[in-house]
Amino acid sequence: MSDISEREESSWLLEFVDGCLQDARLILGVHLWTHSPRRFLEDPWLRQALTRLREREIRVTLEVTISGLGGTVLEPGIEPTDEAFAFLDRLLETGWLQVQQVCLRVDPIQAWEGGTGRISNLDRIDGVLEKARETGLERIRVSLLSYHRYTAKILPRQTARGLRVLFLAPDDVGDVLRPWRARGLDIRTCASDLSRQGIPAGSCFDFEWVTGVQPEGKNRYVAPRKGCLCTVPESVRLWKVPRRSSCTGRCLACYAQEHL
Fold first, then answer.
1. Angle separating helix axes 7-22 and 44-55, nearest 10 degrees
2. Does domain 7-109+122-147+169-233 sit in CATH 3.40.960?
């Protein structure tokens, strides 16, 4: 619900990890998300938490959202694409994470029109995916902006800035993504249906990928969201970092924040 790079969330994570280690509780894996590789890399609490986890050989995975819209009116608090990948490269160089433990999210794919014309990350996604390939990332998750679901929070923000939503045809999205799957990128959708366009559905939180442990027994869904395939074994306790601050990225298409 909020970027792990935010101060309140990252400090809570450090306290939680230290508490688990002190009580000798088993941590199977830690799954993190950020929209800003720069803030992730520079966060002192995350650095401490990742150091603790690496010392104990506890697996950490990261989902990093680089939508291609950083630095625009749609994502004013997020660094532009080239800068984001530069910081991601630096993060990988630290050794806290291996490239196989990182999933890239292009989320959501969207298009708007305003005083300066059309702005859409579908027009920029080739550049994002080329950067991902150069970095060595293979695990990619994408979603489409669900206009009907986000009307209450997103559209008022866009309207206040003189923006008008543009509909993206699934076929057009599929035409852009399919060649990248053919080039070896594991591109799958998150809670969006592009199966007819040749893009299979996938999970963002994959228990085996996060922990390295084969799931056993009955699974339960991580979140009650239509189309979400993320599950965790019922025998495993899933701790979620509570949202304690408002994300400073101020992304207009974010449904989890109340900002205007």
1. 30
2. no
